[in-house]
Amino acid sequence: MKQNSRLWLALHTLGHIANEPDRMHTSAEIADHAGTNPVVVRRVLGRLREAGLLVSEKGHAGGWRLASAPKDITLADIYSALDENIVAPPPADYARSCAVESELHKHVTSVLLEAERSLVERLGETTLAQFQEV
Amino acid sequence: MKQNSRLWLALHTLGHIANEPDRMHTSAEIADHAGTNPVVVRRVLGRLREAGLLVSEKGHAGGWRLASAPKDITLADIYSALDENIVAPPPADYARSCAVESELHKHVTSVLLEAERSLVERLGETTLAQFQEV
DNA sequence: AGGTCTGTAACTTTTGATGTTGCGAAACAT
DNA sequence: ATGTTTCGCAACATCAAAAGTTACAGACCT
Ligand code: FES
Ligand code: FES
């Protein structure tokens, strides 16, 4: 795998699950498929479970399945569940000479946030249903 | 500074330069302003120069200035010059069981690319002129 | 009871970004 | 010419986040 591949892993995995919504998928199976490790898979899918997109069950017939119909899960849901914060990294510990109260500073920040908002909006137009039966 | 702050540094810096387009800005000055190091600044601005957005000059009155009018430089230009590749990380070394030729796989990839394309399109609607005189 | 799973915590490894130092090349001032 | 300023670049050192790993407890089914 690689860095910042959480979104990638989540999308491909949910794509597969959406194509077989009726059975449970184990983290071992998914990990093998994605060329990674079960624990890593659980870490990522765990976030999606917290967001209510997935359900997991323990024990013999355990594993993961979608919490709702593919058509009711958008890519924006997935993106948000991972809180990637991709386009607008936090301000860090910048500038002394350019205060946070600066108009320019606030303006730049708001433009970045707006761009990300628009990205999420775009992702909201695609659902997992579009990954079925392809 | 922090990780993945190239875009952040570029936007804020160009914002400042756009507000004083007529004088040269040195990397030392910019670095001080952004709370980082001159070499780091040159690394980032260097990419923008390669993309034709900035011009740099050596020597006494040297430094950096815009290569064209603020209204002719969009945020998409800046984003692209840094080739961030933010939303769609390269496929890495995934799956043996899920071939690259898989329809599902291609579909997921194309959706990611489309999302990024739409992000860039959105960034293209804002120019540096909007950072002037704020 | 025994076998599968997930859930987590701890730790190590890897990777990319950033920070740092040093020096050469160009431009300019004196 | 000489010295100063500033970029350009290469070669490191440092840092932080992500990913990989190991280990074990808890839940569930047969
Ligand atoms: S650092 Fe000056 S505008 Fe953000
Ligand atoms: S891993 Fe990409 S669709 Fe199977």
Automatic annotation (TrEMBL), chains A, B:
<dbReference type="InterPro" id="IPR036390">
    <property type="entry name" value="WH_DNA-bd_sf"/>
</dbReference>
<dbReference type="Pfam" id="PF02082">
    <property type="entry name" value="Rrf2"/>
</dbReference>
<dbReference type="InterPro" id="IPR036388">
    <property type="entry name" value="WH-like_DNA-bd_sf"/>
</dbReference>
<dbReference type="InterPro" id="IPR000944">
    <property type="entry name" value="Tscrpt_reg_Rrf2"/>
</dbReference>
<dbReference type="GO" id="GO:0005829">
    <property type="term" value="C:cytosol"/>
</dbReference>
<protein>
    <submittedName>
        <fullName>Transcriptional regulator, BadM/Rrf2 family</fullName>
    </submittedName>
</protein>
<dbReference type="GO" id="GO:0003700">
    <property type="term" value="F:DNA-binding transcription factor activity"/>
</dbReference>
